[in-house]
User: Fold these one by one.
Assistant:
Number 1:
Amino acid sequence: MNFVDTQKQFVAWLRDPQNNPAPEMIESRRLAIYRRLVRNNVASFLASGFPVLKARTSADVWQAWVDNFLSSHEAQSPFFSDIGREFVQFLECHKHPDLGQFVRELARYERMDVDAMFALIPAELQVADLAQLETQCWFVSPAVFLDQFYYPVTSLQADQDEPIKRDHPQFVLVYRALNEVSTDHVQFLELTPLTAVLIELLQQTPGQNQEELEVQLTPLLPHMNAEQLRQGLQHILTDFAERSVLLVKR
Amino acid sequence: MRRSVGVGLRREFLSRVEAETPAVGFWEIAPENWLPRGNHAYRQLDAIRERYPLTTHGLSLSIGSFDPLDEQLVVAIKRFLDRFDIELYSEHLSYCSGHGHLYDLLPIPFTEEAADYVANRVRRVQEIIERPLVLENVSYYAAPGQEMPELTFIKSVLEQADCKLLLDVNNVFVNSVNHDYDPYAFIAGLPTERIVYGHIAGHTEEAPDLLVDTHGADVRDEVFDLLRFAYQQHGIFPTLLERDFDIPPLPTLLNEAEHVERIQTEIESHLKTATQPMRRIV
């Protein structure tokens, strides 16, 4: 066997020892160390990355997800802190009887927290001067994450069973403010569809000013007149600038 | 920095280091644990770097894997090294991925073909990072596909790739027990001119003939003895104390680091009296 085949056999066994042959001529207690190291390491990252989801899931089911993650997911990120993101991707496409939309949404929400915490905001972005609101070109902070959820993931009670699914999704924005010295200072906001659209417009085309945003939003809001829209937009921009959800370039 | 003792920098005691600035020769960090960690991490690292030299010990290069070399990661590491003005980049002579990452160190089959393959990849990494790659002899619990001795394999990679060696004396000790060989002969057989960096750590005993390199215990006396022997054989090299689990309070770690320093002092004074020429490292 060439060394690549040796590696492939070993890796296949490590990922899924139930369904793959162990490397030959090697003591099982030695192989077991590798299986244990790999499995425990990934399991501990997932446990710390998804405390709410894990607490709401029976130990057997949780272990089954961890094992399926190892056996079927090809993790692309070299960063240990991205194992949680890899897990979210795995949950999105994995089929398991105990794995429904609620689990996927909760996992996504818990991951947004970590993403916001560790996002790197480049030095060229800074908090806007509120006196110049109308002339600023806006950028969504890289420490802002937007998603929508049918389940009330932001307000779960620990002992609550699976909550009721809403008819319409709720937009949730998770962010870390600029200049926040402590890394555990991540906050969330529930957004109206309009505000969510504003964030998406700016994520797609960064650097737009208030007027450009007005032009884009007008057809989406036929019931509002120009003055109402301008005032509404100014209000949102002020609020987002104060929270450093929206930033400007130096 | 030839005579120097470092400690692995952990977030658990980072704020203490910032506040107390203890006397440590250098701190070692894993670039993969700092690269994706945002503004706060960079500010902390800048503050440390102002006061201390830093070395790096990567986790996910997976130099021996059949998965393609992640050049994007290597480029990111190169930028990171430049950004924090770090000269030394070390990694494991190992692999940690196969059809995706597994986030743990696996044993490269000790074969000629594998040595050639690894050496090629090392050369590519060195091209990108514009520094020598310093590879560590890893601990292993099984050697699937082994066709040559571990020592021959390591020497072959170092020679062909023209790279450097991080000598981890704890790994030598662990492997010598697990695979029943003489750790002193192993160390004596390593090429002196390639050794630029050292690691020392604790391990745990799973069975009398099976040790696990956990970095979760104090350094054993036998391992300090091996380090002393390595210095006698190869000259003093900067050495790092690793501790990744059951991390004791910082003063306890610093005590262990001082033990390494005493060994360096002892060897140095011995070398001076013997008037042997001293080797330049790093």
Number 2:
Amino acid sequence: MRVPRPYALLAEITYQCPLHCPYCSNPVTVKSAVPSGEHIGPTALRAAHTTAGNGELTTEEWQRVIREAAALGVLQIGFSGGEPLARRDLVELIRAAREAKLYTNLITSGIGVDHDRVRMLRDAGLDSIQLSFQSDRSSLADEIAGVRAHDRKLDVAAKIRAAGIPLSLNFVIHRRNIDRLPQMIDLTEALGAERVELANVQFYGWAFRNRAALLPTREQVDRARDVATTAKARLAGKIAIFYVFPDYYEARPKPCLNGWGQRYLTVNPIGDVLPCPTASSAIPDLRFENVRESALDWIWQESESFNRFRGTEWMPEPCRSCPQREIDFGGCRCQAALLTGTAANTDPVCEFSPNRAVVDAVLHDINSSSEHMREWTYRTNPSASPISV
Amino acid sequence: MRATTISDLARPSLAKGVRLQIDSATGKSVLLYPEGIVELNETAHEILSRCDGRTLGEIVYELAEEYEADSNALAADVRDTLSDLQRRKLVKLT
């Protein structure tokens, strides 16, 4: 099989975050690279390489990963986390990405940036910032984030505009904020952003744990779709609106990652290389390679984890003989693993999946209950290196 | 036709946040923007590499000279390409 070249690297440089959003896609429990005394071999070796003390890749290691990614064909990098601003060396990493000619995107809550740091990010060559918001106003937004953050974000957005950095707003949509979609679009206009992502929550990591509190009702979903369609037409040529529909309500699965190991790779804070950011927690039986032990191009081209679901050979029925197999690639491996226990199964969102009943049962539960507000569990930071909020 | 509405005096430029670059893996020109990549054909590359404050009329004139092409046909191509990119918010016209 001819292996394609990757286009984009998601660099999850830390799992630390001052926010506690219950829909975070980060793993609920994080594999630590700090030796506990029982570990020998590769895990202890990893710890020996780090200066951070929490197993995170060092500045030099990230700089090497960035160069290796560019050599492999990557054109875009997204710095994410956790909260990437929690890394003091972020400006250095952005500079390294620009030296490697990568289009450089920062995906951030904005907490931890002042006017000087915004200008330093710009001067390092940052191409674009995606700033997260939890809702359009502080009362609800702060309740979702589990911390007072909204008013600071408004201030950060103004600083980003003043520095002239292209700005996108990212909203994760769920049952508690989906009815505020018109106001979120108004906020995007008011803040002068070029672009907005209104993405219904996808159920991985903390979001999977909190699914019963987060999944919107069918009525909400239908209304939100109309709002998004109308706003797209009204703001065409002015603001680019990307609305991501909640896939549980679809009859066909999303073309996840445009196929496994086709275009994207993720490197997580401890250097594991993942075909998808949620793969390490969703697919526990897959062993992932680490940039401390192997070259990135070998991992991309040769490793078992990147080849397991590449192409269409691995597919079982009904995907194997489905005319859609090169269009949706059988959907999402992580979702198949989380909902059916087997990553190679057809994504159960698909109407042809023998497991579609699993999704329908979840939808039935949400849509037949009158209990609108359900409790969620806030995300907590990995305990290895607590940071102050 | 929408494409003919672009004036000869319009000055096309890359939209904010959009970068023109050579993809070293293929040697081809690409536009990079948030979460997106567009591979350019030769016409689009020749046009966009001249979008540095020059007017549409100047760009057409230069390309017609360089390629010894009919400037009317070329002008239509250039307008089509630019209006397509403008619709995708990758190019702005001032």
